[in-house]
Amino acid sequence: xxxxxxxxxxxxxxxxxxxxxxxxxxxxxxxxxxxxxxxxxxxxxxxxxxxxxxxxxxxxxxxxxxxxxxxxxxxxxxxxxxxxxxxxxxxxxxxxxxxxxxxxxxxxxxxxxxxxxxxxxxxxxxxxxxxxxxxxxxxxxxxxxxxxxxxxxxxxxxxxxxxxxxxxxxxx
Length: 172
Known about the structure:
The protein is α+β, with helices and mostly antiparallel strands and about 170 residues long. Helix content is about 30%, strand content about 25%.
């Protein structure tokens, strides 16, 4: 299975983005850690908050076992036009305390999403200039080598995600 996943070439590039403090961050900065990565946007009415709650809960479940290595939760916006560092910081404080938010230029974000084959499409603007961004709803698991190991869709519970991550850690 791992050989098949590697053949997909998901997440093999090295994105260049900025965190909520404005510091430059790349995928390489997270090597040596397990990463749960979600692409979303702060103006999302329901799906993104639900998925970030699930991701946060999965990380908490894994943290409950001190024998396991820590997992780094990571959020990359798909809406850099509205999601600057300050907006991300405000939004992400309601989730896991170690959740790192990343943004960048439209091109940087597009390239990061493309590395994971994340679909992103901004919808039409309403009279107030507001819009919704349609995007893939997946959480990706990266191992300490930065290699894509698994993904989790909306149907997976936090408990299932934590159990799967634990299994990947055990077989690493």
